Every structure is written in structure tokens, then in C-alpha cells.
């Protein structure tokens, strides 16, 4: 019973990850500036990879035909998913901050720019 539930939940997560990847690809093509495209890329990298990895881990745990290898597959999938959840937002933030500091990517339309207001604190560090 639990094996079937884990299998179907894993399949739903795999399909959900594919849908998120397609939506992120559409966002990469349709968004008009660097920061919006970076957001779409980050969503695709995080949820388009984390959902399928969790799904793969659940599917591998539910397949008894794999024997003891299923625990290795699930462990690697879960560990990789957690690693992506921790590192992808940090990398995206570093890219956005570097683009803002270099003034290569100007956010348009801009309403409030708190980083430009704190230029002395950010630039002087």
C-alpha cells in the first residue's frame, strides 16, 4: 500500500517538475529583462530539478525489484535535491547582485532601488 502511494506520488512529482521546466522555459523566452529571466531560470533550476529528484527517490524506494540499490538511488536523489535547494538561490542572488553592481543589467521599469540607496554600504565592503 505504501509502496504504491510512494510510486504514484513520485510520478506526480516527476510530471510536476516537467511542467515547471516548461513554464520556466516559456518565462525565459517571454520575460523582457535580465532580472525577470533570472527569476524564471532559478525557478526552473530549483523546482524543475527538485520535484523530479524527490519523485525519483520515492519511485526508487517503492520498487522492490531494485533490491538494496534502491536505498542508494533514493539517498543520492534526496541529497542532490537538498543540495540544489540550498545552493541555487545563493548562486542566483550572487549573479543578480553582480549584474546590479556592474550596472550591466538595468531593471526596467524600476520603482524603488534599495541597493542604489545603500551604495556606500554595498560598494564599500
Task: Provide the descriptors you would attach to this structure in a database record.
125 residues; mainly alpha
Instruction: Estimate the mean pLDDT confidence.
Output: 86
Instruction: Count the DSSP helices.
Output: 5
Shape: elongated
Share of helix, binned:
over 70%
Number of strands: 0
Rg, alpha carbons? 19 Å
- Low-confidence residue ranges: 121-125
Describe this entry's structure for a reader.
It is a single chain. With 125 residues, the chain is mainly α. Helix content is 81%, strand content 0%. The chain has 5 helices and no strands. It has helices at 2-30, 34-62, 69-102, 114-117, 119-123. The longest helix has 34 residues, at 69-102. The chain is elongated.
In short:
Helices cover 81% and strands 0% of the residues. It is an all-alpha fold and 125 residues long.
Please outline the helices and strands.
Elements: H1 2-30, H2 34-62, H3 69-102, H4 114-117, H5 119-123
Helix pairs in contact: 1-2, 2-3
Amino acid at each position: 500500500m505504501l509502496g504504491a502511494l510512494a510510486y504514484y506520488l513520485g510520478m506526480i512529482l516527476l510530471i510536476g517538475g516537467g511542467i515547471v521546466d516548461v513554464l520556466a522555459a516559456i518565462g525565459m523566452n517571454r520575460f523582457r529583462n535580465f532580472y525577470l529571466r533570472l527569476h524564471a531560470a532559478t525557478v526552473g533550476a530549483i523546482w524543475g530539478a527538485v520535484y523530479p529528484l524527490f519523485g525519483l527517490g520515492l519511485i526508487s524506494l517503492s520498487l522492490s525489484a531494485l533490491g538494496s540499490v534502491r536505498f542508494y538511488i533514493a539517498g543520492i536523489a534526496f541529497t542532490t535535491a537538498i543540495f540544489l535547494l540550498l545552493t541555487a538561490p545563493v548562486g542566483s542572488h550572487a549573479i543578480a547582485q553582480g549584474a546590479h553592481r556592474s550596472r550591466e543589467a538595468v531593471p526596467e521599469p524600476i520603482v524603488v532601488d534599495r541597493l542604489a540607496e545603500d551604495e556606500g554600504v554595498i560598494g564599500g565592503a
